[in-house]
Amino acid sequence: MLLATLPTQAGPEAAMRQAQLLLVEDEAAIAEEIRADLDSRGYAVTCAPDGHTALDLARTRRFDALIVDRMLPGVDGLTVITTVREENIAVPVLVLSALNAVDEKVRGLKAGGDDYLTKPFALDELAARVEALLRRPVETRETVLRVGPLELDLIERSANRDGREIELLPREFKLLEYLMRRPNQVVTRAMLLEDVWHYRFVPQTNLVDVHIGKLRRKVDAAGEPPLIHSVRGAGFLLGEGGG
Asked: N or C: less crowded end of the chain, CB within 10 Å?
């Protein structure tokens, strides 16, 4: 049995009634145990035994959260998550895995997972993590991103701040989109090199700092409150509050 056994209680977490969850788990006994527990807490759970089924369901139905096992036959859990993100299906994802090494957790989160829970786990903890995910703001499916006075139109490929047009090069546009999808969150140089420049290693370079500097000069004009902030020893943050 991969699940730790703890007594469960339907408490305040059941207030999130009928949130639609997609559980992707190939071991039928585990899937049924999780489904039954979440069902008792007021969630509506749809089960998928493999990655292909999960993707079909995620594309055709609206779910409030996905719970995805890391190791699946055929299309594995990371591929499911990566595909969901590439297709702009905005839904929080909890990764389940028996792999508890730090690098495996990092892989799960970088693939697009929002949280990572290792087996064995208590059903109470799983429910608590689901509840926490449902409280988070979900990455928007809209074609226009907004952070304070800053607006980015993903269809028109245009940007403006309080009506002031901002001319961006393609890489600057992608960099700004990445930051705007993570408002008020610290983004590291390594994250940017991997996700914006698609480096699979972290070279010794000031490439990120140079591009952030150019982008900052365009976004934060003279006399305007800064939106792009450097966080010493960590990275960068986009938001009105600063870091």
From this structure: N
User: In this structure, are 165 and 130 located in the same domain?
Assistant: no
Neighbours of 204 (CB within 10 A): 4
Instruction: Tell me the CA distances in angstroms from 117 to 13, 170, 205, one per residue in order.
Output: 18, 37, 34
- The answer to the question of residue 243 being in a domain is no
- Provide block-wise average pLDDT over 10 residues at a time, the chain (243 residues): 42 53 95 95 95 93 93 90 85 88 80 87 92 71 82 90 94 93 88 82 82 96 94 90 59
Q: Which helix (H) or strand (E) is 129 found in, with range?
A: helix 123-135
Domain co-membership, 24 together with 121: yes
One DSSP character per residue, 138-182 reads PPP-SSEEEETTEEEETTTTEEEETTEEE---HHHHHHHHHHHTS
Q: What is the CATH number of the domain that holds 16?
A: 3.40.50.2300
Q: For residues 215 and 225, give the distance between their C-alpha atoms in angstroms, rounded to a whole number.
A: 15
Point out the domain boundary residue: 95, 111, 135. 135
For residue 97, give the 3-state DSSP assignment.
Answer: strand
pTM here is: 0.54
Tokens for 181?
A: 């999808």
DSSP 187: B
